[in-house]
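Dear colleague,

Following up on Tuesday's group meeting, I ran the structure prediction for the two-component complex that the binding team flagged. I've pasted the input sequences exactly as they went in, so you can double-check that nothing got truncated or mislabelled along the way. The C-alpha cells for the whole assembly follow below. Feel free to forward this to whoever is handling the docking comparison.

Inputs:
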Amino acid sequence: MKRQIPFALVFIFGFFTIFQYFVPHESSEWVYEFLLDWILIIGIFALALGIWSLWRVSIDKINNRRPNWGYSYVTLAGLFLMIIFGFTAKNGDSWGYYFPFVIAVLLVIIMLIQTIKAKGQSKILYIGLALLFLIISILIGYFDKSWSIHFSTSEGLKNTMFQDFFDYILIPILSTMFSLLAFFIASAAYRAFRARNVLATILLVAALIVMLRFNFYLPGAEYFARTSTWLMNVPNLAANRAIVIGIGLGVVATALKVILGIERGYMGKG
Amino acid sequence: MNIFDKMMRLDRRWIFLFLIIVCVVTYIIPFKVPIHVVPEVRSIYDFIDTLEPGKIVLIAIDYDPNNLAELQPMTFAIVEHCWRRKIKIIFTALSQNGPGMAEQAIRDISDSMKVDKTYNGKFYKGREIKNGIDYTFLGYKPYYGLVILGMGQDFRLPFPTDYYGTPLDSIPMMKGVLNYDQTAGVIDISGGSITDAWINYGQGRFNFPLALGLTGVMTAQYYPYLGSGQIFGIMGGLLGAAEYEKLADNPGRAMGGMRIQLYAHMVIILFIVMGNVGFFMNKRKKKLREKGI
C-alpha cells in the first residue's frame, strides 16, 4: 500500500496533465487551475522546510564545533534579521526602540541555541535568559509606537532596513563573488585554448573571432562581427539544436518512465 | 625551464595582475567604443519602438545580484525605452532575489524618467512614473514553471495581489488584463534556467512574442530558438545591452562597460597567443632534438 498509492497518484496526475493539454474544455481548465494552486501551496511548505533545514544544519555545526562553525551564527543572524525587517515597518520619522527590539530578538535566538547544547544548571539559566529577552522584546513591541509589526500585509517590504540590507550587503557580496569568476575564466582560457589538434584549433579560432567581434582597433572589425554572427547562427545553432532535440526526447522518455512506474527514484530507495 | 616553457606555464597570478590593471585603467579613462548592432538585438528594439503608447509589455526580471553587471543595464535600457514611449509594463521576478533587483531598477529608472531627455532626435518630457498606472510589479512566487503556466490562464491565479499587497482588480492598469493575450509580448531578462520555462511553458503553450536578455555565457545556447522563430530576439551579455543602448541613443552602464570588456578580452587573447607560441616553439624544439639537430 505504501508504494501503490504514490504510484497511482503519479499515474493519474501524470496522464491527466498530458491529456488536459489537448482538451480545451472549461471543466478541464478548472481542474488544471486547481492543481496549479495545490502545487504552489506545496511549494510554500517546501520553503518552510528549507528554513528548518538551514536552522538544523547551522545548530549542528555550532554544537559540534565543526570547521568554520562561527559563520553559522552569521547565517542565522542574516536569516532572522531579514525575517524581522520584512515583517516590521517604521510609522513615523524615528525608529524609536526598534534596534533594541531587534537585538533582544536576536539574543532570544542565541539563548535558544545555547540551550540546545547546554547541560544541567546552565540549561535552566539559558532558558531563563531567553524568556527574559523575549519579554523585553514583547514589551518594546507593545509600547513603542514608532514602528509596528505587519504579518498579514506587505508593509514590511517598504522597510528601509529590508531594502538597505539587500542593496548594500547582499548585492555587493554576490556581485563580488561573481566578478571573481572573470579572473578564473581568463586563467582557464590561457591554459585550455591550445592548438593541440584540429578540433582544438577550430575551437580556438572560433573563440578568438567571437572575442574580437567588437574590437574596433582591428582593420577588419566589421568582418569579425559578421563572422561571429554567422558562427552563432549557423554552426552553433545546428549543434545546439541537436542537443536540445536529444534532451527533449530524453525528457519525454524519462517522464513516461516515471508515470508508468518504471523509474522509481523519486520514492527514495529505488 | 626555458623562455618557451615559461610562456606556457605562466603563474596565474600574473594573469590576474594584468587583468586587474587593465580593468582599473580602462575604468578610470573614459573613451567610446564603437558598437556594431546585430539583427537579434535590433528586432527587440524595433518591437518596443513600434508599439503604440498604452500597450502592455511583460518584463520578467529573472536574475540575482550575481548577474547584475550584465543584466541590469539591459533592464535599464528596455524599461526606460518603454516608459519614454508610454508603454506600460508588468514586472515579474521569478528568481529568489529577483524582487530586490526589480525594485532597485524601478526606483532608479523612475528617478531618471523625471528628467527631460532627447533620444534619437526626439524630445521626451520628464514625468512621474506611477505604480498601477505605468507599471505593475507582481513579485515572486516559487515554482516558476507553474507560475508561467498560471499567468497564461489568469495573472490573478499565481498573483491575486501585486508585490505590495494591492489586489490586481483594484489596479487601474490591470483592468481588463487577464493573461498574456492582453500583452504585446514578453521580454525575459534572465541569468538561469527560468528562460527554458518561458520558452517551453510560456511561448510554447500560449504562443506570445518572446525575446530574451541573457548573460554572455548563456547566449549561444538559445540561438536554436531564434532560428525556429520561438523567440524574436536575443540580447547577449553586456555587449547586447550596449547594442540596445546604442539603438535607444541612451548610453549607460553597458556602453561604459564595453571599454573595460574590450581591453580585458585583449589581455586574455594576448595570453592565449603567448601560451600557443610557447607550445609550438617547445614542440618544434622537441622535434629538432629528436632528429639530433
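Chain B has eleven helices and eight strands.

Cheers,
M.
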